[in-house]
Each structure stands twice: as structure tokens, then as C-alpha cells.
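Re: [help] complex structure
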Amino acid sequence: MKRLLCYGIVALGLVEPALAEQTITLGASVQETGALANTGRYYRDGYEFAVQRINDRGGVKVGGEHYRLALKIFDNQSDVNLSVRQYTQLLTQDKVNFLLGPFASDYALADSSVAEKYEVPMIEGGGASDQIFSRGYKYIFGTLPVASRYFESTVEVLTKLDPAPKTVALVYADDAFDVAVAKGTRERLQNGGFKIAQDERYSSNTSDFSSLISQTKASAPDVVLVAGHETEALNFIRQSKSLDFSPKLYAFTVGVPTADFRHALGADANYAFGMTSWLPSAALKDDYFSNAEIFAGDYRKQFGYDPDYHAASAVADVETFAKAIEAAGTLDPKKVRDAIAQVDFESLYGRIQFSAAGQINLPQTVVQVQNDSLVPIYGHKGFINKPRYPMPAWDKRQ
Amino acid sequence: MRPLGWAASTAVLAVLASVPWIASPTLIQFGITTLLLATVAQAWNIVGGYAGYASFGNSVFYGLGSYGTAIAMVQLNLPFGVGLALGAALAMLFALLLGLPVLRLRGHYFAIATLALALAMTGIVSNLEIAGRNTGLVLPLLKGDALFYELALGLLALVTLTVIWISRSRFGFGLIAIREDEDAAAVMGVNTTLFKAAAFTLAGFFTALAGGIHAYWITFIDPVSAFDITLNVKMIIMAIFGGAGSVLGPLVGALLLASISEVLTTEVSTAASLFYGLVIVVAVVFMPRGLVNVVRHFKRLGWRYFSENLRSHRL
Amino acid sequence: MALLLQVLANGILLGGLYALMALGLALVWGVLNIVNLAHGAFIMLGAYASYYLFTLLHLDPFAALPLCMLALFLFGYLLQRHVLNLIVRAPMFNTLLVTFGLDVVLTYLAQIVFSADFRVVNPGYAGANFALAGVTLPLVRALAFAVALVLTFALWLLLAHTRLGRAVRACAHNLVAARLYGVEPRTVYALTFGLGAALAGAAGDLYGVVSQFNPYIGDALTAKSFAISIIGGLENPLGVVVGGLFLGILESLTSLYVGPTYTDVASFGVLVLVLIVRPKGLLGRAT
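Output below.
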């Protein structure tokens, strides 16, 4: 309902003849319904929030003229084929100026081809797989850090723990993102001198991890690294408890930083390690939202739930367009594309700057759930807080 | 068809063929999607409408066509045409090897078996290295939709001509006999195994080609989207809604349903799936023999057509 | 060896859960010849029912079992009476399509009402387990296994030894004759379908304690339930237990010896094999 209202207000702004204001339309196909809607909504809400705020702060100035941002969002119903058709429609029928990306790497993989085909830049904040950026495409940019480096900070932490862990089990889902994570993590572990006790790929959307957990338990690793989706991480933890499996440390690529994940697990979430490319810290200053902490509070007030890095990434995408368009001084897609490639500014999400391939370079902060709250443990400057290690057995937890 | 029918059809075909040069890109895109959907619905019609074997496994043919094309182009660096041929060959091989044992089943057991085949194939392909496992394959980008549109149109024309030929050949009569009473047909000398296998293979051939064209057009396939069961249901619904066992039925059904769905996806995108569900329920309850049948009998029976259907089918 | 035992134990307990899931589908299919493609959606609704009973009324999932079953029973009864009865005498294929359409509608409505967020039912004992002969057994799964056995036995009793059961079987065999004996088929069909839905509700009630759920879990569960029902055989309620155990053990062993990504290939591959070679299932008479 709120979304319709927001969209209605934006649409009204477009229709208002008296203002005769010019608009720049950003188009996106997002998972508002379907299996990925749980995370897709962060992108829809993030995009809307950013567009709204940028317009409140004066919109975008293009070569001396004043423009408002407008948003056109389609629901791809968590169907990749539909999202491709919708992006094509956004460009050919709705004639949007630029594109914002979907959630998830496989969608970004498919949809970025549309951007490349029509030579209109797309900035996506939902796909981290290296594959997206290794095809030589010029019109795709991503604000999620490189998938293969997701566990980089975590492995660094492992080298600094005492007693030092020696064996690691690597368990990962078989989708584009997690396979990329596993590939990079494998190399990192081998270089770090760890013995990989288990290296197991499982089907996406697995709901029963009993056999996998039993196998992992039998190989008795010190550490378990899980690259998968939120729902899988959730099931993994719960089923580990019911099978009495408790390694010294386990870390997950997703889930831990998100509030409803921790809420669903309750006390079982404690001791779990995760990572986030973003924390709502006041140190992250922003031209439109003051800083990340204030942003988080405002976001919560507007949408009723806490934002996480997905939402922040989405906001960063919109801000990048605003900055790039102003820098280019024109709405020509090629020139804006070049401007995006050159951006370098601080935002509530962190420093926005893209590599030659088009991907951002942000370090992951290792976090841990301690006493039911999320505690940052290790960032690019080293340890922030003391990790709780090793994890006690299930029946020995307080 | 009388000469007037042929003339009219050729005219329609000529108009449709000129679309890429006169219509907007969105219309072309819609056209490609609808043409491919109509093709797979018409192909399903051969085995589901004429032979009466409701197959839930046509999505396997579609997926094999997609993967055949993708593997040929991406892993083996072969041209698109070769890819299409490979996909079609894979599908036909599958139809013969697995179709023969599965076609021995009747009624809903056949439907379930084909459904299981589709699910098993998704699992198998997601484990094959050459198919890119579960992450899928990214095909090379071809700018411009005209090629895909014309190919899709040509394919639809081809499959419809095939169905026209079936509708008046001994082969077709044999299929209808199998549908109405398979045992009687066998007694009358119809080689039911051969006919069923041929129908299944034909359906597979056309569906695979459609899958191959779609794969190259959309530039990305993965097991879940290539072997999509909902696509299978869509083709069945379109064929049935229009009228299974008739030549025009699947075309009408595909065009109507795709249009309404496209409008919904644009305007009220989230309700599109609700719409599909409701259409299915209403169509199957009130007009199980399809729109073509409604048109044929409505003049005579009026609204009683629907209540007659209800009365004969309800408990 | 210890690992093999543990994996086998996992498979058996998983089998119990599977049997519970498939029971409702097998009943309706075997007895009424109605193939319910919305079965998974019923399980999903049962899970949400238990979720709200647990979160709002703090009702333990096992205590909520009869309530969930009752709610789903009413739902199924009304659905059969007013919608599905309209196509019972149509070709079998029509029920497949109609129930598929229902599945789509139910999933969509569930998403609107419950949102796409995943949910869990997390009573205090959700992670409890006990050790037996060196094998760790999760408590909830063991209890679910017991519930599956109890319900299967109860179902068998109902069908074989009660008036209602006889009426149901009569309708399935010969509708006209049943009518002549005073059986009202519309009510009987509706009651049976309601019962099938109630069993799905029971499965859903316990599902939430074992795994997370959201509006979209229906399709995968329906597919699994199909495999279980057919492999076990539709003629005997016990077939579901056999089918469930077989599939549970098969999947667990496949995960161990071949790889976790091959479980679907194994289950559905075996389903195709069973259909081709022995369509009446493991417990059915050989064709």
C-alpha cells in the first residue's frame, strides 16, 4: 500500500503540468513476489527511498537544468525469463533512461545482457558473482563486493585465532553466487595453510541437511564455512542443533546480519559468524541521508523494518546514477556510462568506486551474534571486538 | 482448407512476417514470446490433443533444445543452426528412448511419469559440467530481434502445417482412434506403439526448436528455467483453452492468454499469476473442450453449453 | 560404519516425515482417483496455521495438531463440495489442471496474506535430540515418525472397519451401486477430500518445526508426495510408509555416496523406473 502511495506520488509528480519539470526515469525489475521476494523487497524499498530523498534534496542537475528522478518498477515474480523481458520492455516501451538491477546473481547475469544489448548502463546491487563482470560487458556495474572474496576477512580472522583452527569444511549451494564464493574461498584456504576436511556442493533450496551435517560432523572439522541462502543457513543451524553438531566456529555468507534471521532462530543464533559489507555506522557519511546510522533509523520509520546491506546497496545504486549524471552533464547513455566508470565518492554504503570490470571493491566486515545482538568483529583495520571462540557444545550454552 | 482459407492464411502470414519492420520493439518482443508459446502449445496438441496423451514432459524437450543450442554455441563454438539441430536431435532421441516405455502407461500415470522425467532431467542437467551445472550457460549476444521473430514465425507456420496434415491423414486418424479407445484402435489394426512414439517425437522436435530459439534470444539458461514445469502447464492450458485436438485451438488459446497475461504483467504485475490460476480453474470447469468448441456449439446451444458441460461432469 | 548408521537413521526419520506428508495425497488419489496438485499448498497452509497458533496463542505444535487438522479438514471439505465436485466425472486430466490452478491461486493468496517472509515454529524442544546406539536422533523427527504411524493406522482402521470407510470405498468402486445403497456421494467425496486435507494439515503443522517455510514450498512438497505415493503403492495406506521410508533412505544414501546434488535425480529417477516397471508400487500387486 505504502509502495503504491509512493509510486502514485511520484507518478503525480510526472503528470503535474504546472511544474513542467523534467524527469529522469530509472527502471528496474525486482522480485516483489515469488521465492526471492523476501530479499527482493529490500531493493524495491531501497530504490524508492533513495529516489524520494534525492528529489527532496533538489533532484539532479544536468547541465544547468533541474531534473527529478522517477522510478518504474516491475515485479518479475522471481522468474528470470520474465525479468529479462521486463528489462527489454522498460527500455523499448517505457523508454526509461537508465536501469537499476534485480536481486541475485543469476538474474543480474541474464538481465545485464539486456543493458549491454541496448547500450544503456545498469547499476545492480544484488549480484556478486564474478561471472557477471568477466564477460567484457561495458554497461553493467555492481555494488556488491566480489563473490570470490566474500570469505576473505573471515579467513584472515581464522589465521589470528587461538587455539588455531586447522581443518575447515566448505559447504556451498550450487547457484552462481555461492559457487563463485566457494571457488575463491577454496584458494584462500589452501594458501592459508588450512586443511579442507570437506568440500561439498548441495542443491539450492535444499531443506534437509541431515546427511550433509552428519557427513560434516564425521569429518570433525574445526571450522565450517557455509555459502548459501538465508533459508538454507537457517535450516543448517537448526538441524545442526538437532543432530548435536557444534564445530569450533561456523560462518555463513548471508543471514546473520539480517534481523528476521536472528529473530527466527532466537538464542540458537548465538556464536554464528557472518559478514556484511555494510553496518549502519555514523562514520559513513552521505550527501543525501547524513550518515548510515540516521539512514537506518529513517528507513525503519518509513518501511517498518531494519535495512541491511541489500537496502544500502540499492540506495548506493541510485546515488551513483545521480552523481554520474551530474558529472556527465548529459543524459546520453554512453557518456553517463563513462561517468559511472569514473565515480569516486563517499556514501552511506561506503566508498563508491568501480574496478575496470565494473565491480565495487568493499571489504567485508566479519560479524558475530553475541547475546542475541550483532557485534562487528573484524574489519579492514583489524579486530573491532573480541570474538567468542570456540563455540561451546549445544548443551553447554547458557 | 478451401482456397479462400489458404489465401487468407497466406495474407495473415505475410502481415505477421513484416512486423519487425513496422512495429515497436515491445510488440516484437511480445510477438516472439507469443509465437514460441503458440508453437509449443501446438506441438503439445499433437501428443496431448490428437493422441490424448497428456504430456507433462514437453518441458524436457524444450530444455533439451535450449541446452543443445547453448552447449553447441558456448562449449563447442558451433554456429546457431548446428546448435538448433543438436537440440532437436537430443529431444527426438529422448522421445524415442524414454518415450517408448513411458507411453505404455495410461491416463494420469503417463502424466505423472512425464512430470517425473522433467524433474529428474532438471536434476541431471544441474550436475553436468558441460551444461554449466546449476549456474547455467551464458550465450553470445546477438543484437536485434528480427532474426528471432522470423524464426519463431516460421517455426509456428511449420508446426501448424504439420498439424493440418495430421488432421487429415491416416496418421492423424490413427491418433484420434488411440485417443478415443486405444484397445479398439489396436484391434482395428492401428500400430498404437508406432503412432504414439511418432507423435511424441514430432512434438519433441518442434518443442526443442522453440527452446533453442528462446535460449539464444534470452542469452542465459539454467536448469530451472530451461526445464520449467510451469511452461508445460502454460502450453497445456493454452491448448486446452483454445481447444485441444483442433488446428486453430492452440493458436487462439496462446494468443488470447499471452495477450491478457502481458497486459496484466505490465499493469498489475503481481496479479498475473492469480489470473493464470483462475483462468485454469474456470476454463477447465466450464469449457473443458476449449474455445473452438464453444464457438462451434454456442450458436446452437447458447448459454446452455456451459451448464451442459457442468451437468455431465459433476458429481 | 558409524557414519553409515547415522545416515541410515536420518533416512528412516526423514522417511517418517515423508510418509506423513504423502498420506493425504495417497488417500485422495487411491480412493477417490483425484490427483491433487495443490496438496503441497495444503501442507503449507497447515504450517502457517500452526505458526499462528504458536506465535499468537503460544500453543505447542503437537497440541495444535488436532486444530490444524480440523481447519484444513473444513477447508478441504468446502473445496471439494463446491469446486472439485464439479469435475469429478470429467476426464482425470481435468482434475490435474483444476488442482494446479488452485495451487497457483492458493500460493498467491498465501503470499498476499502472510507475506513472502520465511517462518519457523521454534518451541523450546525443537533442537532436542537423544543418542541411541551411537546415533544421534532428533526428537521432533522421531515424534513425527510416531505421528505418521499413528495416523496411517487410524486411516486404515477408518477405511476398513467403519461405515464411513465402507461408504468411501463403495463410491470409489461403483458410484451407481453406492447411490442405490443410500450413500450420498457428494458428501462422501467431500468428507474424504477433507480428510486428505486434514492429513496434509498435520504434516504442515510439524513441518514448520523441522524446517523453515514460506508460501512457495508447496510445489516441491507435492512432487515429493507423488513420488512417495507411487513408489509405495496407492492400494494400501501402509504403502505410504513404505514409500516414505524407501525414499528417505534412498535420498540419504545418495547424498552420502554420490553427492548431495543428486538426491532429486535419485528420487525422480526411481519414480520413473517404478512407473515403467511396477506402476502399482512396492506394495501393490505386480502388473
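Residues 37-56 of chain A form the longest helix (20 residues).
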